[in-house]
């Protein structure tokens, strides 16, 4: 069973989750742009600044004592992959458990024919 957190901590966690989603969505749009244009440079700068802000929010979340994956269900099981979230995965993570490393190691080696992995 996951640790219980205050409503304020959960609100901050939800803000970090939303930030991860927004950055992944923005990255998908940036990838479609013509590179090395003024607009692309402007969007990349905004994206990098947003990453820094999200990192600061994640640090704030950790300071509150939150040290779980952002995506746990009520039984404490992961419900989303760290690496695959419709973009480039989690941008930040407060978890003391390095789930992303476990997922990376579990990826199939090239040429194995194994297409998916389990969390």
Structural features, described:
The structure is a single chain. The chain has one domain. It is mainly alpha-helical. Helix 1 (7-32) runs antiparallel to helix 2. It has helices at residues 7-32, 38-63, 99-106. It has three helices and no strands.
Low-confidence stretches: none
Envelope shape: globular
Percent of residues in helical segments? 40-55%
Oligomeric state of this protein: single chain
What is the H/E order? Answer: HHH
What is the terminal separation in angstroms? 18 Å
| Biggest sheet overview | none
- Strand percentage, roughly? under 5%
Mean pLDDT across the residues is: 88
Rg over alpha carbons: 16 Å
Summed up, the helix count is 3
Summarize the structure.
By secondary structure, this protein is mainly α. The chain has helices at 7-32, 38-63, 99-106. Helices cover 50% and strands 0% of the residues.
């Amino acid at each position: 069973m996951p640790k219980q957190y205050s409503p304020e901590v959960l609100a901050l966690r939800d803000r970090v989750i939303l930030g991860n989603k927004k950055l992944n969505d923005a990255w998908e749009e940036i990838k479609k742009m013509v590179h090395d244009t003024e607009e692309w440079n402007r969007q990349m700068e905004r994206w990098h600044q947003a990453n820094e802000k999200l990192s600061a929010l994640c640090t704030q979340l950790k300071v509150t004592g939150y040290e779980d994956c952002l995506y746990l269900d009520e039984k404490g099981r992961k419900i989303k992959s760290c690496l695959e979230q419709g973009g480039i995965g989690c941008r930040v993570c407060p978890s003391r458990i390095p789930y992303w490393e476990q997922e990376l190691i579990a990826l199939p080696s090239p040429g194995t024919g194994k297409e998916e992995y389990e969390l």
